[in-house]
Design goal:
This protein is an alpha+beta fold. 34% of the residues lie in helices and 27% in strands. It contains 5 helices and 9 strands. The strands form 2 sheets. Strands 4-5-6-9-8-7 form a 6-stranded antiparallel β-barrel. A two-stranded antiparallel sheet has the order 1-2. Strand 3 (54-55) and strand 4 (58-66) form a beta hairpin. The radius of gyration is 16 Å and the shape is globular.
Amino acid sequence: MDTEMTGGRPTMARKQRAESGGKREPGTPGAFSRWMQHRMNARMNRKVRRGRGTFMGMDVLILHTVGRRSGERRETPVAWFAGDDEDARLIVASGGGSRHPDWFANLMAHSDRASIELPGGDTVRVTPHRLDGDDRERAWQRIATAQPRIAKYQSKSERRYPVVRLTPR
């Protein structure tokens, strides 16, 4: 049985490795890491839907996106932080190694189809906005104060983590 097949079709990761001579890009997760992340994401999604949306002291929501190439629906648990107004949520694209995580690329590619689920709540359509300049710095300070571990991760990364504000439509 091929563990990298989905519904009888090769996964995008497998196609990319085939195109690059079977090797994965440096700084990207291997097959076991992807499998483990998929399992952990599904488990966290179940927790959020049962109304228990915290992980390591952070609030978690489920981000609904659409694959930028596949067009398939995706659900990713993501830590969130209070935004500058009551309804806004801030999320940080901190995973993914040397690249931005796939969920971030999907979110930016199909921003009109984004939605979130808060613990035990309904799905709410949102508009994502990548923060830059002073807006990003103010948001980053709020996030780093709430969760110093994220600032620590950022200090060890070669890339600057994008911060995205999600506002209900």
